[in-house]
Design goal:
The complex is a heterodimer of chains A (116) and B (115).
Chain A lengths: L2 E3 L4 E5 L4 E3 L2 E3 L5 E8 L5 E8 L7 E2 L2 E6 L4 E6 L8 E9 L8 E2 L3 E6 L1
Chain B lengths: L4 E3 L2 E4 L5 E6 L6 E7 L5 E8 L2 E5 L7 E4 L6 E5 L8 E8 L9 E2 L3 E5 L1
Parallel strand pairs in B: 2-11
Antiparallel strand pairs in B: 1-3, 3-8, 4-5, 4-9, 5-6, 7-8, 9-10, 9-11
Classes of the chains: A mainly beta (116), B mainly beta (115).
Amino acid sequence: AQKVTQTQTSISVVEKTTVTMDCVYETRDSSYFLFWYKQTASGEIVFLIRQDSYKKENATVGHYSLNFQKPKSSIGLIITATQIEDSAVYFCAMREGAEGADRLTFGKGTQLIIQP
Amino acid sequence: GPKVLQIPSHQIIDMGQMVTLNCDPVSNHLYFYWYKQILGQQMEFLVNFYNGKVMEKSKLFKDQFSVERPDGSYFTLKIQPTALEDSAVYFCASSSHRGNQDTQYFGPGTRLLVL
């Protein structure tokens, strides 16, 4: 069974700095897909970025980038030049590549607090 | 990004009653999902749905749960009868393709409280 683990419960950083959030996963599949979502204070869930397991290059979208270390089953999220509005709970999720296996498995989330 | 809408945003009902949660998925999406989030925890998959059929469901998708999307209208999650442990936030998601073709986009959730 697939499993996603986020060990950091909460991180607090000063605005305009860079933060990294960790995520490790377990899967038996050779093909899988990794996602990061954030959940705002209002509860809204926003898709941020994804990494397909067969791609060697780390994904980058705006000020979000991923540190994909396949041998370590690790997919860290890096946020550069953080802003107050980046304060949220960040969830890592995985989807396995087998036919019919479209469910997302989520980690428990990391609360990010951006301080002025 | 693509928007998924959910109605109502909050619902309070008495245990044993029926409740229907409504989801308006992204217009060109064909695959639909429900997830459940208990306060302070991660979202957990309930069910996915395509072409009028349940494709996959988890252990959380009890016999009291059902889903449908009649005639391209709302994608609904019905719970009948409700139980106290059904209190949670229910998120609907949709995607345009299966497998590796697309990303699931989430609605804002319906906060269900069963008394």
